[in-house]
Amino acid sequence: MNPVFKQLKQELDRVQSLFMALTLFDWDSATQAPKESIGLTSKAIGILSNEYYNALINDKVKRLLVQLEGETDLDDYEKAVLKEVKKDYEEMELIPADEYQQYSELVSNSKSIWEKAKKNHDFEQFAPTLEEVIGFKKKFADYTIKAKGGFSSRYDKLLNDYEEGFTTKQLDEFFSRLKEAIVPLVQMVVEKKDKIQKEYATRLYPIKEQEEFNIFLTNYLGFDFNRGVLAQSAHPFTTNLHNKDVRITTAYIEDLMESAIFSTIHEIGHGLYEMGVDDTLTFSPVGGGTSMGMHESQSRLFENNIGRSRAFWEPLFPVLKEKFKEQLEDVSLDTFLIGINKAEPSLIRIEADELTYSLHIMVRYEIEKQFMNEDMTMDQIKELWNQKYEEYLGICPTNDAEGILQDVHWSQGSIGYFPSYAIGTAVAAQIYAHLQTVMPLEQYLREGKLEEITKYLHEHIHRFGKTKNMQEILKDMTGEQFNPEYYIKYLQEKYTKLYENL
Q1: Strand 238-242 to strand 228-232: parallel, antiparallel, or no bridges (unpaired)?
Q2: 10 Å Cβ neighbour count for 72?
Q3: 201 Cα distance to chain centroid
Q4: Which class for 73: exposed (0-12), middle (13-18), buried (19 or more C-beta within 10 A)?
Q5: Does residue 18 surpass a pLDDT of 90?
Q6: Phi first, then psi: what are they for 69, rounded to 5°?
């Protein structure tokens, strides 16, 4: 190891340790912390965030980064860490320490305020907090744009945080192409939606039995409970401390059994990615997923391309029927498969079908782009949300919980994240098409050999962490960079086949 890099690594170990502590607080607050703990806990998070800031932004780290720029014997790992830390340092040093602490305390409090507002179906309870979050995000983006340039708008800056290299211009073209392909398919399924009956889905499925099946499912998919945890939260999510401590959550609804199943599968996809990062990279700035688009590709691949296929459910459906004998007594595998793949416009993103899902993302993309680049009141943002749902999906929320309050992301400051879901969904289809050419994919699924699929993904995607970007990974694995046409072809073939004989 380069001696100068070794000095930097000692500093980064402290940074990483403080980040782990903050991650644990975030996990605890979302899963099991007492409701009244949030006030003092947020104060502690603010203080720890200040320590985290100072551990990274200081003269010693800056000096070491400058020294390393002139070193000629860095290996690939050291170069990747230097690139990642330099990027983080240059952006964070522009933010005053007191503002960073204030923002950290705000988003720590924000999630619990959002949860209460959602429970009460009342956006007004959350609106002042959201306004503060947006204000900070605008201010921080302006700091970077003013100092470094390189972005045509605040929103472009935020997009780059999650999907480096993507711009609103590229996303406008991407979403325009998706909309052009998806809308005719949506019109077709809307005309036939009443021909698919899935009354079984809204029968009562006791939470305890759902938990038992989801634990079985988590094991079945290869999530290692010696290195991971499955818990419950208001909104399913994945977090990790390193590749041997990966934590996922799901949410159970008694009369909507499919919700937990596919939320769990989705989060398992994220979890397998983090568990697959190479041991030499974990607990470092390059020890996680390379981008949120690539991360979402893994969750969406398992949730949809694999998780809604016949081959996947052939060995699993008998297990599900055994767990819910009474509820599924009159339900065949064919009925179940048509049910879990039924497409129709709906209000809730995380429960949306594959076909209409990207329309939900387009709504959020258009809204985020507008409120980050323009001045908007909270009432205007809510009104725009309802208008966009009417425009894109032909339906309007009847309350705030199924409308503007349905997602946790904005409460956490994750503005600019949503497009990664659509990018990831398209990447998942590209990877799925590739997997079909390099292995007997359906045979593995029918035989329950999920480990063969995961092994391939570990080898070609997961182990690299952030040492390779999404485009490099795709090119090396599939022979071409990001190509959304695979996603469009997948949707057209799947839904034409599913609905043509109805």
Answers
A1: unpaired
A2: 5
A3: 25
A4: exposed
A5: yes
A6: -60, -30
Q: Is the confidence at residue 311, as pLDDT, over 90?
A: yes
67-77 average pLDDT score: 94
8 A C-beta contact, residue 92 and residue 53: yes
Burial 152-162 (b: 16+ CB within 10 A, else e): ebbbbbbbbbb
Of 414, 418, 413, nearest to 104 by C-alpha is 413
All structural domains of the chain, each given as residue ranges with its CATH number in brackets, are 3-143 (no CATH), 168-499 (1.10.1370.30)
For the chain, give the longest Cα–Cα distance. 70
Closest C-alpha among 276, 280, 215 to residue 248:
215
Our CA angle for 59, 64, 69, nearest 5°, is 130
Length of the chain equals: 502
- Please give the Cα distance from 5 to 78 (Å, whole number): 7
Does residue 267 carry a catalytic annotation? yes
What are phi and psi for residue 489, nearest 5 degrees?
-60, -40
CB 236 within 8 A of CB 267: yes
Nearest of 168, 163, 135, 134 to residue 152 by alpha carbon = 168
DSSP 3-state of 425: helix
* Sign of CA pseudo-dihedral 229, 230, 234, 237: positive
Q: Identify the pLDDT of residue 306.
A: 99
- Mean pLDDT value across residues 437-444: 99
Query: Is 173 known as a binding-site position?
Result: no
Burial degree of 197 (CB within 10 A; 0-12, 13-18, 19+): exposed
Task: Give the Cα separation of 267 and 262 in Å (integer).
Answer: 9
pLDDT > 70 fraction of the chain, expressed in percent and rounded = 100
Cβ count within 10 A of residue 121: 15
Kind plus residue range of the DSSP H or E element containing 249:
strand 245-250
Is 296 marked as a binding-site residue?
A: yes
Q: What are phi and psi of 218, to 5 degrees?
A: -65, -45
Question: Taking a C-beta distance cutoff of 8 angstroms, is the pair 238, 289 a contact?
Answer: no
Query: Which of 267, 274, 303, 354 is labelled catalytic?
Result: 267
Residue 400 has phi, psi (to 5 degrees) of -70, -30
266 assigned ligand-binding residue: yes
DSSP string, 170-213: HHHHHHHHHHHHHHHHHHHHHHHGGG---GGGGS---HHHHHHH
pLDDT of residue 35: 86
Let me know if 276 is exposed, middle or buried by CB neighbors in 10 A (0-12, 13-18, 19+): buried
